[in-house]
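Interim report, section 4.2 (structural modelling).
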Amino acid sequence: MADQKTLTFVLMDAPYENARTTTALRLMHIAAKRGHEINVFAYEGAVYLPFALQKAHPNPVHGKDAEEEDHVLPREWVAEVMAEAERNGGKVDWINCGFCVDERGAHEAIEGVRRGGPPNLVAWVGESDNVLVIPTK
Amino acid sequence: MSILHILETAFRGTIEEQDDTVIWTVHAMRKAGQEGSVVLQGNIVGHAVRGQDATGLQFGDHPQTNPVDLAGDMQKLMAAGVPIYVVEGDAADRGIAGADLIAGVQLIDRAGVAGLADSHDLVWHW
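Predicted structure of the assembly:
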């Protein structure tokens, strides 16, 4: 891909707390559809976005069982973005901040997520065409 | 014992949770016998606007099949016996008129919130 870019996203928010995570994933999804190289540095609560033990549940207030509720699991959205990137000649390189993982016991992550730290982010800043920070407010 | 729930934060996790988590909690508490009322003030007045449509989100081959239905959830909460009030001035500040709101919510002025606080045993600010 001649105009392939390298885009780095820095995420901070935990899943299920606000809409910023979804917005970030939607931006990544668009970039994935266009075949760009995507880096994600997830720190603080964002390390729970690809947490492998997320589990759907029924919703008694909605009156729906687990199948009807079809609850969102951000780890599945992350996996979809990764797959979309691969289908279009790009890739998603997702790093969870290791200290943040340790603090939270969030060690189980989906395939394609690796452990790292700020030095990885520094390297990405130098390699990327652009960097977007989406912090907790 | 009754609780006045004052909500201000709009669209807090509603996409992923597929509901507003505070409206959900108030409803779950109502099912467990807790009495109360809800006030929407500040940005969350937008939750009561009719005609919202959260459908269409999809990542790869994974569409969201059960998106948030704020109006439906609030109407179910009111049907369960929890009145919902919208601060009229906050709605007007955002260009929202009474006719734009879902049926059943009650408009209240800011001074009226104090009266509601006085008529409940507890006030919880979310």
